[in-house]
Amino acid sequence: MLADLLSIEKVTVAFGGIVALKDVHLSVRDGKTTAILGPNGAGKTTLFNVIAGAVSPTSGTVVFQGEDVTAQSPSKRCHFGIARTFQITQPFGGLTVLENVMVALTAKATPMKQARAEAASYVDFVGLSAKADDPARVLSTGQRKRLELARALATKPRLLLLDEVTGGVDRPSIPEILNLIRRMREERGITIVVVEHNMEVLFGLADDAIFLNRGEVVVTGTMAAVAEHDSVRRIYLGDG
Ligand code: ATP
């Protein structure tokens, strides 16, 4: 097992005159959950997109499982084992919950019968079996987030990128989603990178963290150590 599943090395991203990331380094430990923290405009989404392959760095490299994947497309990275969820979930509303998961599988050329059984196991894992035959459009926000997790699981990721996975979800449904994410890591050994504004959620999930400000790394380390940093306390805990 590699110590670091993913490393971001000296990554800079410039959008015209705006430098969204500057010389960013990040190591993501295998089997752990890493949080990307920072105030608005800090570069969190850009870093997330650099890992997923949706944004190409102006300079620097992205290394996944020891391979330089900087030039690889998002779909190629998905094939290598990098999956992502979206802040705004994007299921096919007219398809059933089960079919939505099957689509993620058939993209990998799984035979239909096998796809159905396999998709059912992911739907069950995320606790949506009772909704398997309902159209995705009738799901609540929390259920849609869980469907999104099932679709990501169907791509058999080594690394899962979660964008605001509890955003818009009613409070009582949040623990269920957190529990699911912990199970993904513990039972399936999936490494997770998360962008999330809710600090309570982050404390419940993250082992490690990186805190960005204006595109630069302010501090990295364990979640507990990063949370103690003055700038982090100021922004997330309202100190000072
Ligand atoms: P938020 O918490 O508000 O979502 P963030 O930390 O995710 O912010 P980014 O969205 O990564 O920050 O943005 C970092 C900087 O890069 C901002 O100044 C933003 O305006 C700029 N930026 C991001 N994407 C683009 C783009 N496609 N074109 C131009 N500028 C961009």
From TrEMBL:
The keyword Phosphoprotein does not apply. InterPro entries: AAA+_ATPase (IPR003593), ABC_AA/LPS_Transport (IPR051120), ABC_transporter-like_ATP-bd (IPR003439), P-loop_NTPase (IPR027417). Transmembrane segments: none annotated. Keywords: ATP-binding, Nucleotide-binding, Transport. One of its GO terms (cellular component) is plasma membrane. The keyword ATP-binding applies. SUPFAM superfamilies: P-loop containing nucleoside triphosphate hydrolases. SMART domains: AAA. One of its GO terms (biological process) is L-valine import across plasma membrane. GO terms for molecular function: ATP binding; ATP hydrolysis activity; L-isoleucine transmembrane transporter activity; L-phenylalanine transmembrane transporter activity; L-valine transmembrane transporter activity. Residues 6-239 form the ABC transporter domain. PANTHER family: AMINO ACID ABC TRANSPORTER ATP-BINDING PROTEIN, CONSERVED COMPONENT OF ABC TRANSPORTER FOR NATURAL AMINO ACIDS-RELATED. This is ABC transporter ATP-binding protein.
